[in-house]
Q: What sequence folds into this?
């Protein structure tokens, strides 16, 4: 895992979040009328990720609550850890079910398996449309060419990957940005010391998956903060 624990200045973190939200709002969403939004939530569950895993578990209920008026949300939990352990849950339509699933998982040391995450997302959306993939991690230990090819295939299928990088490592940043770009998604740093930052980003992507750009604008009117800033930016597009 990444050993780099340098912190970004506050204004840099805010700029990254605003840019991420702006990209989320402009990404295309294709949905069949009346169906729930489907969000694949993938996390690196190797050793250094335990605090962020716990933090993300506490945020899940808000993702579901924000999308109820949009027809609801289904979330699949995907994670890797340890020695080539990889798991994908069923699709959950209730926050309590997902939270119980997450709290049974303990992080364990191991290598990254981002390629398996991307391949799983491809397989899943070919069976039944997935509207957004969120990946949270802090390291890349795989062949960039293979990852980029898979991300490009996601883009061709209209499944954007929204990539959150915990901490700051410029090499990892370059790789994560490329994955997000090739898939038609977006990238942002996220600071584990600022839980509100992760909360805002996850809520925004959940709302995007369930209702698209217009729903994000409505969220901005209600919640303010970085989402309201996004709405102002949308007015300039």
A:
């Amino acid at each position: 895992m990444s050993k780099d624990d340098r912190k970004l200045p506050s204004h840099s973190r805010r700029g990254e979040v605003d840019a991420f939200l702006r990209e989320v709002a402009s990404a295309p969403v294709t949905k069949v009328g009346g169906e729930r939004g489907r969000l694949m939530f993938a996390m690196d569950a190797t050793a250094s990720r335990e605090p962020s895993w716990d933090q993300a578990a506490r945020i899940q209920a808000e993702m579901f609550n924000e999308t109820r008026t949009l027809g609801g949300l289904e979330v699949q939990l995907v994670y890797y850890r340890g020695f080539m352990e990889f798991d994908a849950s069923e699709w959950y339509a209730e926050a309590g079910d997902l939270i119980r699933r997450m709290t049974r998982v303990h992080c364990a040391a191991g290598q990254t398996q981002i390629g398996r995450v991307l391949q799983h997302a491809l397989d899943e959306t070919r069976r039944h449309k997935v509207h957004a993939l969120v990946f949270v991690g802090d390291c890349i230990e795989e062949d960039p060419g293979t990852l980029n090819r898979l991300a490009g295939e996601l883009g061709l299928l209209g499944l954007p990957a929204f990539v959150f990088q915990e901490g700051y490592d410029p090499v990892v940043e370059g790789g994560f940005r490329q994955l997000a770009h090739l898939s038609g998604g977006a990238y942002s740093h996220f600071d584990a010391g600022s839980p509100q930052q992760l909360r805002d980003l996850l809520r925004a992507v959940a709302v995007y998956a369930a209702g698209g750009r217009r729903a994000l604008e409505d969220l901005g009117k209600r919640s303010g903060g970085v989402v309201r800033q996004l709405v102002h930016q949308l007015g300039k597009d």
Strands lie at 37-44, 73-81, 85-92, 132-137, 161-166, 186-190. The CA atoms of residues 148 and 178 lie 7 Å apart.
